[in-house]
Structure prediction request, 160 residues.
Amino acid sequence: MWKNIIIHPEKCTGCHLCELYCSFHHFKINNPSRSRIHVIRSEPYIDSPILCIQCGLCIDFCPVGAIIRNKKNGAINVLIDKCIGCAQCVFVCPYGAATIDPITKKALICDLCNGEPECVKNCPEKVLEYVDATKAVYYKNLIISKLLKKESIPLEPYPK
Ligand code: SF4
Ligand code: SF4
Prediction:
């Protein structure tokens, strides 16, 4: 069965190790700007990793067919040789999970590390879990229902 990464944001300490393991796995460099997972601090509320939920919306919007779904594990895969760096995937992603690599100028989207996500394996606080899609849906529902109950949180200015 295909699996999803789910997040337990209340456990996150903001150490950013997941970002470092991600960039090292893909590029052999510790550089958060080249990571496919991003830890966001929302003062004074919470640190939380943000990452692709593999919804596949961006597949349809890529003008050159550079985004595909890996049939083996369900992951979104960017075909680097095809990607023209137009950032349409960045534009349509509702989660802010797609970015453009500052070095290659191509799309960066979580590929689930071919079914063995490094961020999940290496988070010291077990914030991330890689679970069957049927279990993941329960957590997704839970998070949305909690968000709906919360009072609206004012947006902060874009960081300089
Ligand atoms: S940046 Fe690359 S992957 Fe994203 S939409 Fe453009 S061509 Fe497709
Ligand atoms: S990058 Fe965004 S739009 Fe594309 S599959 Fe991931 S969450 Fe969906």
Observations:
- Helices lie at 17-27, 57-61, 88-92, 118-122, 133-149.
